[in-house]
Amino acid sequence: MKIALMDSGIGLLPAAAAMRRLRPDADLLLSSDPATMPWGPRTPEGVTELALGCARAAAAHRPDALIVACNTASVHALPALRAELEPVLPVVGTVPAIKPAAAGGGPIAIWATPATTGSPYQRGLIRDFADGVEVTEVPCPGLADAVQHADTEGIDAAVAAAAARTPREVTTVVLGCTHYELVADRIRAAVQQPDAPPIALHGSAGAVAAQALRRIGADPFPPDGAVAPGGLTVILGGREAPLPEVALTYAEGVLLAPVAPARG
Length: 264
Known about the structure:
alpha/beta, Asp/Glu/hydantoin_racemase, Aspartate/glutamate racemase family protein, Asp/Glu_racemase_AS_1
């Protein structure tokens, strides 16, 4: 089984790590184009063109499913990706975890890129899944780029600025950009109020990985337990490459690194 994931950069690591935990035997293929980041400020047409490039590079390796591990690409490019690749290649998009977050009753905050914050797409999700729940949309300028480059000072500054825009009474935070899941612990520490119950964070990586398995009729956790680890193929800008060193600064990247080359 081979599962492909695509994103502008290393935001695909959380979903890839989630897939590795669900199916350690699966070969993973990571396709990104970090030289073109950030995608958020680009036009929908520009995002679609870049997403199609990453998807085509992945599809050439004939995976069983493609995860669009990027909120921006899912918003703007998912229809085009599905029109070109399905039904031969199932395409699974990423949706901010607003529905499960709102189930707790709130109040909730949605941390997202400035381009996504206040967008009709996000407002539609809030209307559909968080009606009657107090929701604060929190733009996080610079956070995805800082995470992409493992810029510790930049991450701390962007997280602190977003935390300052987050109401103190918030009980739940939705991580509305896949890059943010790589620094979830820092976000939690920044928004946690003294003597308050632990803040709940909701990302999308686990749900997206599980949905990809459902789409291809595969079960998580092979029943025999002992399996050979799956391989890893990395594509950067359409060319095979090693896993970027910046990925190894995050636990999710370390989880993916010590594997044999992909089979077939």
